[in-house]
Amino acid sequence: MLYILTIGICIGVALGLVVPVSAMVYLALLLVSALGLVLGRRSARALVVAFLCAAIVVGLIRAEFFTQAVAQENVLQFAGEPAVVDGVVVGDPERRDTSLRLEINAAMIDDAPARGVILAEVPRDESISYGDHVRVRGAIEAPQAFDAEGGRQFDYPSYLRVHGIGAVMYRGSVLEDVRGGFSAQGSLFALKHAFESSLDRAFIEPDTSLIKGVLLGERHGLPADLENALVAAGLIHIVILAGYALSIVSRSVLRGLAFFMPKRPRLVVSALLLVAFVLMTGAASTTVRASIMALIAMLARALERPSIALRALAVALLAMVLWNPIAILYDESLIISAAAVFGLVTCGSWIGERLRAIPERFGLREIMASTISVQIFALPAILYYTGTLSIWSVPANLLALPALPWIMLGGLLAGVFGFLSPLAAAPFVLIVHALLQWVMIIANTVMMLPLGGTTINAFSGWIAIAAYVPLVWWGVVVYRRGVAMEN
């Protein structure tokens, strides 16, 4: 029933966001649900249909509340002309090469009441923090979609809406900045920025951008050629805080603690270390989501009980969709991560049993089994959203991922000791530099191979959905066999 609840609410949310739903549809679903409950005493299938219809209604209602909340925003009513925005910085300011990007929860625009979040770009040298009350002048604009590779169009408005942003302001100027009071989130962001500064002092480019990507998920600082090489090699997940990459690190911690404590205490310690990592890196939404997915994947492989991990995945996905309904349609990271973790939970062990020729040393068999299962289930979504087909991703991951835990550990220690002095961080910097060079050699080599990073032309989302039908069926079959073995 948990899976039916999750599926039904996701369907209801998606339908409610895409098409207008009349009262007759609600009534029909409730009638079918009531009829199913009546017949449920004799037929389990009728009870499933009743529960599914009720869950769809819940999803439709959640989508309706979300749509109404968005409709109450009025920031776009001020689009087109320069305006003065008064509001509070609600996200972590992102400092780029030429600008500082602020997420401003508008309270007033030109002295008129306003509601909504504006993504504003202001001069890079401004010193603005989370929670500050700011007054910014600039032209408010509606975000626009733009063309991407392979005939795709990047839906920038929906991408911003996933993050709660309804409008943009380019080339804004700060008229006033009043420091906000103390907040836990602001303190975490301050810790993150201090850690970034320590990394800047300890490393040189391109190591600095790459280690920030690995530790903090900051991808925008990567050189374009290096980013393209990582994409072609199927290694880009290591610099976007993907749940799969964090799960590799977590399982390495589990193996390292095996000499000191039994399995269950190891799980607790590993989970606490992951939580500490999330807090240290600012507890951004992408980090939290990746960590949740990593915990689920770690639970599946450590306990060897896919049923527990799959239930955890269903609960996590349900919570994320209820919290931010539009994510089910437009949050590429969530969709790809959920598909990847589903494949890892349901088929990872099954694939590993068929790779006995691969040695277990350094976790090579586990990494290869995990990589294959993740690639299989994430591939339709990756091709739909990005069009990048990395046919060399499995061998590239097999070569690169054993170094990932040591890169993260060395990078964390380099950042911590960098608070003292660059000299104290130097031993860790040298080790991390060598490991990062290894990853870059792998990515650049794959980039030069035939069919490395092939681009597939855009195709309908229905084709991607159709591709998941046999994949999910296969995963469920393998999962049920695993559950039968548990019992």
Structure description:
The chain is of the alpha+beta class and 487 residues long. The protein folds into 3 domains: 2-69; 75-181, OB fold (Dihydrolipoamide Acetyltransferase, E2P) (Beta Barrel); 194-486, no CATH class. Helices cover 62% and strands 12% of the residues. The protein is built from 18 helices and 11 strands. It has a 5-stranded mixed beta barrel with strand order 1-3-5-9-6. It has a two-stranded antiparallel ribbon with strand order 7-8. Strands 10-11 form a two-stranded antiparallel sheet. A hairpin with a 3-residue loop joins β2 and β3. α1 packs across α3 and α10 (285-303) packs parallel to α13. The mean pLDDT is 83.
Low-confidence stretches: none
Q: Give the % helix.
A: 55-70%
Strand content: 5-15%
Sequence of strands across the biggest β-sheet: 1-3-5-9-6
What is the H/E string?
HHHEEEEEEEEHEHHHHHHHHHHEHHHEH
CA radius of gyration is: 24 Å
Count of discrete structural domains: 3
Largest sheet: 5 strands, mixed, barrel
Number of strands: 11
Alpha carbon gap, first and last residue:
19 Å
Name the shape in a single word. Answer: globular
Average pLDDT score: 83
Helix count equals 18
Coarse structural class: alpha+beta
